[in-house]
Amino acid sequence: MSAGQQLDKSALPQHLGIIMDGNGRWAKKRGLPRSAGHTAGANNFRTITRYCSRIGIPYLTVYAFSTENWRRPAEEVGALMRLFKQYLEEALRDFMDENIRVIFIGDTSAFSPELRELIARVERESSGKTGMVLNIAMNYGGRAELVHAMRLLAEDVQAGRLSPEAIDEDAISARLYTAGQPDPDLVIRPSGEHRTSNFLLWQSAYAEYVVMDILWPDFKTSDLDRALLEYASRNRRFGGV
C-alpha cells in the first residue's frame, strides 16, 4: 500500500523539497563514469516527480544544480548541461501532457542562450497548468538567493518604494524565487549526508528533514512513501510547546 493510500491529503506536505544527491557515488560503485550516474538520476527525477503529482503534493522543489556545482570538472558540467537540454526538450515534447507547472529557481543567466530559451519556453507553455507546481533549482544557492532578495529590497528603499522600517519577514519572502508559495514542510535528502547544502535556507527554517541512506538513482517511490509516513508521524511545534 502506498503512502498516498495510507495518508489523506491533509497528512501530506504542502511543499516537499528533495536534495537529489548521490549520482556520482552511484556511478563509482558500478565502475561507471559520473555522467552515467547523472543520467540515472535524471531518469529517477522523472519517476518521482510524476509520483508526487499523482498522490497530490501541491509543490515540489528539487535541487538539480547548485551554484557550487560549477567547480566540478568541465567534462561533468558539460554532461549535466546536455542532460538539462535533453530534459527541457522532453518536457516540451512529452511532459506537457502532465498537469504540472514548471518553474526554474536560481540564476539562470549563467546558462547558454539555448538553455535559457528552452527554460523560458517550458515555463511559458506550462504556466496554465493547474496541478502540482514543480520548482527546479538550477544554478541555485540559498545564500545567493538571499543576496538577490536583499538587492531587490535595497533597490526598493533607494527608489522610495519601501521604507527600511517596513522590511520584515514577509518583505523578504516576497522577494525570494519561491515568492507566493508555501515554505517547505518536508525536505528529503537521499545519500545519507547530514547537511543542508545551501538548499532553501530561508524557506526551510521549520521544515522537517528526513535523511535516507539511499543514493538518489536508487531512491524509489516506496522510499518516498516511507519518508512521507515518517513526516506524518512527527509533532511539528514551530518553536512552541
Question: Can you give a write-up of this model?
Answer:
The chain has 241 residues and is an alpha/beta fold. Helix content is 42%, strand content 16%. It is built from eight helices and six strands; from the N terminus they run αβααβαβαβααββα. The protein has helices at 3-6, 23-29, 34-55, 74-93, 113-126, 142-158, 169-173, 221-233, and strands spanning 15-19, 59-66, 100-105, 132-140, 186-190, 208-212. Strands 3-4-2-1-5-6 form a six-stranded parallel sheet, sandwiched between helices. Strand 3, helix 5 (113-126) and strand 4 form a beta-alpha-beta unit. Helix 4 (74-93) packs parallel to helix 5. The longest helix has 22 residues, at 34-55. It is globular. It starts with a helix and ends in an 8-residue tail after the last helix. The model has no long low-confidence stretch (mean pLDDT 90).
Strand and helix map with partners:
Layout: H1 3-6, E1 15-19, H2 23-29, H3 34-55, E2 59-66, H4 74-93, E3 100-105, H5 113-126, E4 132-140, H6 142-158, H7 169-173, E5 186-190, E6 208-212, H8 221-233
Parallel strand pairs: 1-2, 1-5, 2-4, 3-4, 5-6
Helix pairs in contact: 2-3, 3-4, 4-5
Give the low-confidence spans.
none
Spatial sequence of strands, sheet with the most strands: 3-4-2-1-5-6
Mean pLDDT: 90
Total of helices:
8
Order of helices and strands: HEHHEHEHEHHEEH
Amino-to-carboxy terminus distance: 33 Å
The geometry reads as globular
Helix/sheet category = alpha/beta
Number of separate strands? 6
Question: Could you describe the largest sheet, including whether it forms a barrel?
Answer: 6 strands, parallel
